[in-house]
Design goal:
alpha/beta; seven-stranded mixed sheet; six-stranded parallel sheet; 11 helices; about 25% helix; oxidoreductase; ADH_Zn_CS; NAD(P)-bd_dom_sf; ADH-like_C; oxidoreductase activity
Length: about 350
């Protein structure tokens, strides 16, 4: 089968390879991939800013059908419509594994980063990571369950509830999902972006966001002051991974507000105004990936129509068309890009 493989670290080094069709071992499930989403971390990996265990087939956002199960698997059968957590292996012994926080296990191995992922026709995952796709949820939407689970994880940490004012910085796929999840909890949401994000900001309005702001045209701080009587917002979800957005987020929060970092920065070291954090008693929250408890609630959001993931999908390509997919993302033309297997 053809697979899109990161062969070495650094910029590029991504190529189509012929790989043998995998076989599930004990406790494993084989999935035929229908759609796999390109994540921002895949772009960072391609550009050399994010390290993975090369060589490895990328792709950790996907949905498909069970085609084979390994020894001891009775929970799943051939034909089941499923998606899967990215966790492929854990130590099972550390504090984080015992508490269900697999995303923090030092020995964790993830699909698409350490173990071959979804940019291929087939992949292998462990039975415990598999989740059934609700009957009324299509494969395209289900392929976005993983990023939605990441957002559910972040928003759960922030404890967003009805009446909260929330600013989402960055109207990419993660930001647009974040805005929808925050709205589903009764929050009032402001999303910010640049002139180049015009299409994405328009999509945000279509999805029910209260205010979409082009910060190159409007003063978002002034707008926030007007809407909160000068008080500031309750939560900032920083989804862009842009340093200016992170700095601005601290200004928009009221005292004792919550700042949640979701987006990945190209450079890990970022200048931050710690004085502002101290004086305003801002709560700073890191949110890494997702954990098992985030998946069923995320699938329920799709099932109940509280999150419209399918409308974020603007482009589809074969895995052999990486260059076109990459250009669509980097040009700002695309919102969410899905890849499909190649024969």
């Amino acid at each position: 089968m053809k697979a899109l493989v990161k062969t070495a670290l650094g910029f590029g080094n991504l190529e189509i390879q012929e790989k043998p069709e995998p076989k599930p071992g004990k406790g494993q499930v084989k999935i035929e991939v229908k759609y796999a989403g390109i994540c921002g971390s895949d772009i960072h990996t391609y550009e050399g800013h994010y390290k993975v265990g090369v060589p490895v087939t990328l792709g950790h956002e996907f949905a498909g059908v069970v085609t084979e199960v390994g020894e001891g698997v009775t929970e799943w059968k051939v034909g089941d419509r499923v998606t899967s957590e990215t966790t492929y292996d854990i130590c099972g012994r550390c504090l984080y594994c015992k508490s269900g926080d697999y995303n923090l296990c030092k020995q964790r191995k993830g699909l698409g980063t350490h173990q071959d992922g979804g940019f291929a026709k087939y992949l292998i995952t462990r039975k415990e990571s598999v989740h059934k796709i609700p009957d009324n949820v299509d494969f395209r939407s289900a392929a976005l369950t993983e990023p939605l689970a990441c957002i559910h994880h972040a928003i759960s940490k922030a404890d967003i509830c009805g009446g909260d004012w929330v600013v989402v910085t960055g109207p990419g796929p993660i930001g647009l999902l974040a805005a929808q999840v925050a709205k589903s909890r009764g929050a009032k949401v402001i999303i910010t972006g640049l002139e180049s994000d015009k299409t994405r900001l328009e999509k945000a309005v279509q999805l029910g966001v209260d205010v979409a702001v082009n910060i190159e045209e409007d003063d978002v701080k002034q707008l926030v002051d007007q809407m909160t009587n000068g008080f500031g917002v309750d939560v900032v979800l920083e989804c862009s991974g842009a340093v200016p957005a992170a700095r601005q987020g601290l200004d928009l929060l009221h005292k004792k507000g919550k700042y949640v970092q979701v987006g990945l920065f190209i450079q890990p070291e970022v200048k931050f105004d710690l004085e502002k954090i101290i004086q305003k008693e801002i709560v700073v929250i890191g949110s890494r990936s997702q954990k098992p408890a985030d998946w069923e609630p995320s699938l329920a959001l799709l099932k109940d129509g509280k999150v419209d993931a399918k409308s974020l999908v603007t482009h589809e390509f074969k895995i052999t068309q990486w260059d076109e997919a990459y250009h669509a993302i980097k040009s700002g033309e695309a919102i969410k890009v899905l890849l499909t297997p190649a024969k």
